[in-house]
Amino acid sequence: MTQQQMILNVTSRDSLRFDSFYAANEENKDVLELVTAFAESYDRKQFFLWGETHSGKSHMLQACCYHATERGQRVSYLPMKTLATYGSTAARGLDSMDLIVIDDVDRVLGNADWEEALFDLINHCRTGKQRLVFSSTQNPRYLECELPDLASRLIWGETYTLHALTDDEKQDALLHRAKIRHLAISERVMDYLSRHYPRDMGSLLTILDVLDQESIRRQSKITIPFVKQVLDSS
Amino acid sequence: MLWSDCLKLLENDLPDQELNTWLRTLHGQEHDDTLLLLAPNDYVLKHVSSYYLDRIVILVRRIKKNDSFQVRIQIGSADYVAPMAIGTEQPHIVDPAMAAAAPFPNSLQQPSEFVNPNMHTGASLSNNLGQSQPFNQGYQTTGRHVNPGLTTAENQVIFANNLNPSLTFDNFVEGKSNQLARASAIQVGENPGTSYNPLFIFGGVGLGKTHLMHAIGNHIKAHNPEANVVYLHSERFVNGMVAALRHNKIEEFKNYYRSVDALLIDDIQFFANKTRSMEEFFHTFNVLLECQKQIIMTGDRLPREVENLDDRLQSRLVWGLTVEVEPPDVETRVAILRKKVEHMGLDIPNEVAFFIARRFRSNIRDLEGALLRVLAILRLRNTTTITLDFVQDALRDQLAVMDKMVTIESIKKLVAEHFNIRVADLDSKSRARSITRPRQMAMALSKELTNHSLPEIGEKFGGRDHTTVLHACRKVRELIQSDSRLEEAHRILSRTLRS
């Protein structure tokens, strides 16, 4: 199974919450606590989370949204990977939101319309009581902003790094997610997965989703032959 | 709450990303036998109508145990109407997408738009959408001049001046870099409309221009609570004007801004190239000045240096007083840190304040960002003692990144190598083309890749003036459009430095 093949229409059974986030090391544990504290506060205005692809930024941001919603706040999540091509009007009308979460902000930097829209949004949030969360794969100091006014505003709040997991930590993370779903995966199966399939966290989580759904559908335990049968035929 | 219950059910079916992008952003209101969903913009409205509305209708009818229960969706937000809903029986719906681009800064009295979702869902009428417009209260005029019947509380909301009350002269830290600007601002705050009109404050990003502007506005309001002081960003003025034109409200727009006592416009460089807005602002400007109303503006450079700004406007902007805010020196940065920490009831030792101030020096936002991180980690560790070790550990990531950042020195070295000249040539007085081009390139790259201000860059290139740096940046920008060799040099140097 290639990475390309793994883009399947499957939905995770576990939700993206703070308690389902596996913070493998001390640095990431701190970030998890800091993001949770931000989500619980009302006065902290802005937060920037950066880290490599598949380091768990989107998970944290979704958890932030859920947390705020549970507290009765109105939330808007803007995934720039998707929205970049739609134009900056997608960022309009958010004045009444309590929390605005902008994932992968680096995707729209360099685009004058988007940069002005984000600049305007930050100014508005600073004047009002709205709070902002950003994420990117690059350190905000290195972002290629055309607008210096926006660049300086992106580093206005707290900035934290989410560190990518090592291979061992990825296995632990996968076991953690499997445990939440009450899904039994042995270490042998895990070893097999890590040796035969892409090892980035995104692919591993997709594999978990596929195995999870197929094991429910076929009422079967997850064994190496089962894995081969499911993944190599998909 | 019907909509909350419906969202809970949708949580079982949909991934978090879809819920957070499209559905949690909606505001639901239940009226008799209808659930009204208010979407922040047309984009969300179309997407929800196309992909989720049928499912929502099924769930809502199941919850209500009523097969004829209706669901409507339109652009709007109830949040804007709370004050105006006083005494009204039906909800008042306002278009926040337009409010974002509101012709009037208070964003309250915009015409609502009932959007017929049939336009987006084709012929599917099974969910009884878009029939009548029972919730649309229509347009209400703005301002105390046309709403004499409003209560004081309503007037306060309607005349929202957008001033941030926390930005005052008391918490503005004075230093050499902003002394003149602060003194002029106090003068204007004490005597609006008479001394220094217009007042134009310029300087780099994050140096306190906006703080000074709000401080003037708050000072005027403190001495005269009835004064109609309006602060807005130039971008909002432009968006507001576009919205006013679209909704045939340009006369109200003009009247609104021409009737204020003090108009505070931030970052006027964003007027560049927006001809119609510039024209309107020009006329507003003239009317206010004639009536001795105060105008305060900020910009990132001198008016004459703002490209594509109307010549007449450029000349008018310097009629009053133009003052510069420069990057704060280390002592001022320390004082700013101390002020912010004291405000939180904490204490910061001198050596720690100096450490942060020396490392985070590009602008005040940078400094504030570092301090906020320190304070957040302080809370996380459940301590109130700020030591140097603690701060170095808390900022470890950021300091490591900054240590790897591009410096003017590294730029000069690489540019000199590329063009086969000496680094000293870049600082020299030579005006030979073989030296000026690399020098201009190095200056432009310093502007692009570092956080140094223009005067700082000029200083590092043999003590040149900031206007020389500005000229160099423009020249390089022009040349990379017309000279392929220079374009290639710029691309290679930029890529090498970034990597």
UniProtKB/TrEMBL annotation, chain A:
InterPro entries: DnaA_dom (IPR013317), Hda (IPR017788), Hda_lid (IPR055199), P-loop_NTPase (IPR027417). It comes from the Bacteria. Residues 18-157 form the Chromosomal replication initiator protein DnaA ATPAse domain. Residues 167-231 form the Hda lid domain. GO terms for biological process: DNA replication initiation; negative regulation of DNA-templated DNA replication initiation. This is DnaA regulatory inactivator Hda. It comes from Leucothrix arctica.
TrEMBL record, chain B:
One of its GO terms (cellular component) is plasma membrane. Residues 195-324 form the AAA+ ATPase domain. Residues 407-476 form the Chromosomal replication initiator DnaA C-terminal domain. It comes from Leucothrix arctica. Residues 1-99 are annotated as: Domain I, interacts with DnaA modulators. Domain I is involved in oligomerization and binding regulators, domain II is flexibile and of varying length in different bacteria, domain III forms the AAA+ region, while domain IV binds dsDNA. Oligomerizes as a right-handed, spiral filament on DNA at oriC. Plays an essential role in the initiation and regulation of chromosomal replication. ATP-DnaA binds to the origin of replication (oriC) to initiate formation of the DNA replication initiation complex once per cell cycle. Binds the DnaA box (a 9 base pair repeat at the origin) and separates the double-stranded (ds)DNA. Forms a right-handed helical filament on oriC DNA; dsDNA binds to the exterior of the filament while single-stranded (ss)DNA is stabiized in the filament's interior. This is Chromosomal replication initiator protein DnaA. The keyword Membrane does not apply. Pfam families: Bac_DnaA, Bac_DnaA_C, DnaA_N.
